[in-house]
Amino acid sequence: MNPSPDERARDASSAAASRAAESHAAANHAAANRAAANRRYDNLPEPPAAEPHAAALLARLVDGLAFRYRWASDGLRPEDLGFRPAPDAMDLGQLLAHLAQLASWMSANVAAARDGGSPVTYPAAGAVVEAARGSPEQLVTLTLDLLHALRSDVLALGDGGLLRIRLVGGREPTAYPVWNLLNGPLADALTHVGQLATWRRMLGRPVPQHDVFRGRGPS
After folding, report:
1. N or C terminus of the chain: which is more exposed, having fewer CB within 10 Å?
2. Residue 76's closest CA among 12, 142, 124, 137?
3. How crowded is residue 119: how many other Cβ atoms within 10 Å of its Cβ?
């Protein structure tokens, strides 16, 4: 028995709805994969604004730091963490932990500015790092998550909100403005990412080749 016109219409509508649902699911999956890749900084995200402004420029600096860090730390093994080029230098494990603490300090204080909270000292910001010490994978994941949160909160604050950022080091109660975030922990983190890359080359485990200018990971 042949289906009636109404039955054929219902079947066609059902098939179209099924295809639409599959397409929507595929799009959601692709979007989730892109979001996860952005959080991992496999590639540098798109610029955060069409035209430069203060918050977007700071967010882009954070993205650049995170992208360089992602590949400078790629593939580090627990047995690599004890390497240091000189007795008085930090070893790779200490560099990873210090970078995580710098990211935590910046992120915590920008979040405090966003929420109207009190500044977080550098020692207090290290509490979240302790559980990850000794595991390069955990330290790297933690640091990238903190940097991603930092760039998101910077953009949420906007240009005017940057004036609310305050940093307290721990040795003194003085609260410093956003300028000190730039020449302090942010610049410090970029220096230490360069040390990661240098230590690795000396260890014989160089950083994978990637394009820092265009922001592309290894092909």
Report:
1. N
2. 137
3. 18
